[in-house]
Amino acid sequence: MQRIVSGMRSTGRLHLGHYLGVIQNWVKLQNEYDCYFFVADWHALTTKYDNTENLRQDVIDVVIDWLASGIDPEKSTIYVQSLVPEIAELHIYLSMVTPQNWVERDPTLKDMAKILRTKEAANSQISYGLMGYPVLMSADIMMLNSPLIPVGVDQIAHIEITRDIVRRFNNIYKTDFFNEPQPILNECSLICGLDGNKMSKSYNNDIKISDTEEVTAKKIMTAITDRSRLRRDDLGHPDQCEVAFKYWQIFGDAEQVNTVKCECEKGSRGCADCKRQLGALVNERLHDIRERRRYYEEHLDEVREIIRKGSEKTRTEAQKVLKEVRNIIGMY
Ligand code: TRP
Ligand code: SF4
């Protein structure tokens, strides 16, 4: 079985964007590949180094959301980045061979710098650690020498840098030890936030996997609809219904979508009723996931044991790679 590695920053409880965009893909991949999924808590630290009180809980919350969503620890290896310190050593070696302008060019870094500048002065500097974001990510990938990396489009630039670093390392040390990783693009229905922008915790427009049914239903009542529609019997335009109809297309089957479309266009469907039904549908879809989430919340020892076992197994694999790397470079 081919090996796959992918990670997510520990940002706390995950939302439907994570679920539909990334996790659902992982759940499929774990049947075909030898999957390693990790919580990137060092990457979280690149921007949250001065706000660490929730760091530990954030890691647990991410893992619980994964398990609830169907990542199966019998099939996949789940670990935490900082529990595999070998990654930090590999990061040092990679940082030696990575030219400064490669990290400076990283477009994602430029976006993060923009966000940081809007914060208080104390936190607005790009740290040395944040500069190294793509190098650390390369270390994550190269640590398991994985040929395939499932990611979203926003991470493609990082995979490109990893490929460059792999080539440079192999070149400098005259080796073919490291694989040039290929991205597997997540095939996903990108779900927007309730206000039509990208779904994000920081925009406060998200639906969390862990939200209760009541909260979910309430949130969906705030979803943007066809703005030109003022009265219940105005003729609607599903194609201009910015959020609610898009959600129908993601969560409903063909017949349901068709019914909504026809009734909306005829003016026989009010937006409030429409969103009430939609809320029920979304809750139905999330029902089993939320049941499993509750189970793991009540069995935290099990979660911690999954993390411990997965991290230990990953360390064993990482140590093999690191031994080879030290040898290739010529370390003492
Ligand atoms: N940067 C990724 C994100 O923000 C998380 C990540 C860290 C990652 N290391 C990785 C993803 C290695 C894939 C492979 O989502
Ligand atoms: Fe959107 Fe439904 Fe309202 Fe039509 S009836 S505009 S699909 S919310």
Write a structural description.
- By secondary structure, this protein is mostly helical.
- Helices cover 56% and strands 8% of the residues.
- It is built from 14 helices and five strands.
- The strands form two sheets. A three-stranded parallel sheet has the order 1-2-3.
- Strand 4 (148-151), helix 9 (156-172) and strand 5 form a beta-alpha-beta unit.
- The two termini are 34 Å apart.
- The model has no long low-confidence stretch (mean pLDDT 94).
- It binds tryptophan (TRP) and iron/sulfur cluster (SF4).
- The site of tryptophan has 13 residues, from strand 1, helix 8 and strand 4.
Task: Give a nutshell description of this structure.
With 332 residues, this protein is mainly alpha-helical. It has helices spanning 16-29, 41-48, 55-69, 86-97, 100-105, 107-117, 128-131, 133-143, 156-172, 213-221, 244-251, 254-266, 271-298, 300-329, and strands at residues 3-9, 34-40, 77-80, 148-151, 182-185.
